[in-house]
Amino acid sequence: MNLFVTGGAGFIGSNFVRYMVKQYPNYKIVNYDLLTYAGNLENLRDIENSPNYTFVKGNIGNQELVDFIVKEHKIDVIVNFAAESHVDRSISEPDVFVKTNMLGTQVLLDVARENKITKYVQISTDEVYGSLGETGYFTEETPISPNSPYSASKAAGDLMVKAYHETYGLNVNITRCSNNYGPYHFPEKLIPLMVTNAIEGKELPIYGDGKNIRDWLHVEDHCSAIDLVVHKGEPGEVYNIGGHNERTNNEIVHLIVEKLGVSKDLIKYVEDRLGHDRRYAIDPTKIMTQLGWKPKYTFDTGIVETIQWYLDNKTWWKNIKSGDYKHYYEEQYGVN
Ligand code: NAD
Ligand code: TDX
Hints:
With about 325 residues, this protein is of the alpha/beta class. It has a domain at about 1-180 and about 215-240: Rossmann fold, CATH 3.40.50. It has helices spanning about 10-25, 65-70, 85-90, 95-115, 150-170, 190-200, 220-230, 250-260, 285-290, 300-310, 315-320, 325-335; strands spanning about 1-5, 30-35, 55, 75-80, 120-125, 170-175, 180, 205, 215-220, 240, 245-250, 265-270. Its cofactor is NAD(+).
């Protein structure tokens, strides 16, 4: 199989590229990524010389280049991770989210259609379903009801994927996963931000009352689920992915404080995120029963390993925090 992975230099994409390069030595894996602030080839240093791996720098919105690469490498399957992924950035700068997450998806779909790609997999998110009350779960039948510019742009991409299936008969799947955590997670997101700030003795900013709930899944379990969808997903189907690990943000931050043995006084309650979704929780019954997926990690083991990874890989995140990201961080929270 010749696989075109877009956004493979980001957090989940790089974990997926590594997983596939190791799992399928006979496949050809082409990683196509624009290397925005979130894309980092350091994430793939250990596998960059593998014979079954190639990197190409490019924008998913560049139809000519995408088409050229897809033809050159005789691509069979496209897996699209490329996206603007941070909700806070989508609130201050929505336009690039529409360009990449919606229009970029449409460009990939067009190239897939014109080149008679055998399968197109869209990596989406549980956030397209909106926010839950205190009970209940998102199933694949839950209506799409996004609340942030980020989730609206992801939902728009998903609807375009569905349209290309219905209209042109393109073989597609959409996966909707809950919040991921694990190695190479960019330190603007809750868990890596709190872990790295705690290690550095910096403030730990919790939005609002900290009682918002997210459903956490280790990134490797997300990768194994996508592997199953690539190989066994039924045409046109949506698969929700999650491991029933609901935690409030307060619980997450207190756990990190406790595991790292730092002072609780670092915790600071700050202004809430605009339109902050209260609760996400995934019902993963479909992928578990129909494709036989099972997560390997419990949250308790996964989070301890992940904290250790950040302790062992300080150079990786310190390089990021000292660059462009630092300016964004200073604008968000003031200098500290
Ligand atoms: P990320 O921000 O870490 O990585 C995104 C990658 O896409 C980066 O390497 C970036 O350079 C690349 N990219 C951005 N714009 C591009 C463009 N125009 N052309 C080519 N490449 C471009 O994001 P992530 O957390 O790894 O998320 C990957 C995907 O998974 C996204 O589609 C996101 O919506 C989805 N998702 C993320 C989570 C999560 O918890 N992080 C959960 C569910 C779904
Ligand atoms: O400093 C912070 N303080 C805080 O309280 C940050 C960065 C976040 N939070 C809260 C907001 C959320 O309730 O923590 C929760 C998690 O926030 P993020 O890490 O920004 O993730 P979230 O908004 O839930 O979105 C993530 O999961 C779904 C990814 O970024 C998306 O790409 C994915 O689709």
